[in-house]
């Protein structure tokens, strides 16, 4: 029997909602707070119970992150390792087809529909009683052949309580300063959010108030960190992957049971290098997103810099002070999780 999400979906307070609507043009209906654990577009409520009751298969691998934490990179790595280094398919088939996004239906606003590409067929199969309620992207997950690799930004608490006993989860965490910079750029560029304010406003009025899509960051991270010792969970740090990629690939190899040789892991490392990822349309969908009208033209790309420490180019002393106050508010999680904000040498 299906269960209901055990958290209330509450619209943000009126003043916060007005700011969100004014600065995030894609969120014309505002955001809802899901039990203080996650902020989502208003129509998330149409899908919340479906995600909470979703039955994962024993051979599924779920790539779970807070946005802009190395998600695309990890998706490509995990898919490649689990599919016998099928680099031809990896180069030809878009990543979001090979590793679908579980809750994308609840993110895409109505003004960006109907979808194009692979989702179009699923869209046409469903009755049009309420276009927002069509779970075409969830249909893509269901239609994926086993063994499935699936992406989500939802925290553990909004998925099945039995998740970690049902399949494997690769959780990737990235330091919050670099995440905030990367998320700012993404939310400026994607039409689903279309942020029109400054970086200073973004940090002070939204990030540090936990008044933005997917916030709060620290509660998401805390849920992953609390499960890091479970045998079906591998907790990775983005900075560790950048610092010693082959070492972290070895950890993934053991966790996934893929049995790849050292030579094969080196092939994965070359394939998933930043330059390689950015050069392939299958993993860097900037052109396709621009063609579909869902990504601004003439600015940055979907895959941006991928570096650690880029936050130093954006944070003023005033912003660092505000950020530190926000970090202190989220203790003990912000103190316990050992992030690196600089690394000496990247892969």
UniProtKB/TrEMBL annotation:
InterPro entries: P-loop_NTPase, Sulfotransferase_dom. The keyword Magnesium does not apply. Residues 59-330 form the Sulfotransferase domain. GO terms for molecular function: sulfotransferase activity. Pfam families: Sulfotransfer_1. Gene3D superfamilies: P-loop containing nucleotide triphosphate hydrolases. Keywords: Transferase. The keyword Lipid biosynthesis does not apply. Belongs to the sulfotransferase 1 family. This is Sulfotransferase domain-containing protein.
